[in-house]
Amino acid sequence: KNEVEQSPQNLTAQEGEFITINCSYSVGISALHWLQQHPGGGIVSLFMLSSGKKKHGRLIATINIQEKHSSLHITASHPRDSAVYICAVRFSNTDKLIFGTGTRLQVFP
Amino acid sequence: DTAVSQTPKYLVTQMGNDKSIKCEQNLGHDTMYWYKQDSKKFLKIMFSYNNKELIINETVPNRFSPKSPDKAHLNLHINSLELGDSAVYFCASSQGGRGGNQPQHFGDGTRLSIL
Fold first, then answer.
1. What is the pLDDT of residue B100?
2. Chain B interface test: which of A32, A43, A48, A94 (most B C-beta within 10 Å)
3. Across the interface, do B43 and A99 touch by the CB < 8 Å criterion?
4. A41/B108 Cβ within 8 A
5. Between A33, A95, A101, which is nearest B98 by CB?
6. H or E segment at A19?
7. Strand B10-13 and strand B110-114: pairing?
8. Which residues pair with B77 in a beta bridge?
9. How far is A66 from chain B (nearest CA, A)?
10. Are B76 and B89 in contact (CB under 8 A)?
11. Within a 10 A sphere around the Cβ of A21, how many other Cβ atoms?
12. Which residue, among A9, A93, A95, A99, would best test binding to B if mutated, counting the most B CBs under 10 Å from its CB?
């Protein structure tokens, strides 16, 4: 069964802290996406990866294909990072994205 | 310039009505999608079109009918609206073939509320 699980569901942090959000999936994939949904509702694609690691500014995404696991890290977190972070996976046996339930991050000053 | 634009942003209507949501992308992408985000904020694919051809059609009621007049537009028509249709509907687009293997660009969403 094609499943995507994220943890934690909710996360609070103080400004400057290092943040890690996790995503696990059940079977083989062809791509994994990390998305950010702002409090206003808009969705932005942060990363798409199928292996290794990608970095953009203070954001780093890694994926371990053998362990079927990906992490999204935020270094030096800032209140403007407060959002819902969503992992979405394209399983090898389907054309569509399956979404995790999201991780709500709040960063306090 | 907005890359993926949806209209309207908000739609409040009564049960039983028929309504449409429009989506346009100016990114030159050839694949477009409709997603539904429910009250628990869970996103789920509804439809996907590649070059005007329907490639993903999830199990949604046949009251929902997508229409793609060209590869830059994907509209969603909903007949006989029901209370359970209340949600935020997101349009997205990506470049290349079937969905999931390219980054997707999302519209701002259409919040549909059924009275």
1. 63
2. A43
3. yes
4. yes
5. A95
6. strand A19-25
7. parallel
8. B20, B65
9. 19
10. yes
11. 22
12. A95
pLDDT tens digits, one per residue of B19-61: 999 999 999 999 999 999 998 889 999 999 988 888 888 878 8
CA distance A67 to A72: 15
Instruction: Quick: pLDDT tens for B46-101.
Output: 999 988 888 888 878 899 999 999 999 999 999 999 999 999 999 999 987 565 67
The answer to whether A102 contacts chain B (CB < 8 Å) is: yes
Q: Would the CB atoms of B99 and A33 count as touching at under 8 Å?
A: no
Residues on chain A touching B45 (C-beta within 8 angstroms): 96-97
Residue-by-residue DSSP string for A24-92: EESS-EEEEEEEEE-TTS-EEEEEEESSEEEEETTEEEEEETTTTEEEEEESS--GGG-EEEEEEEEET
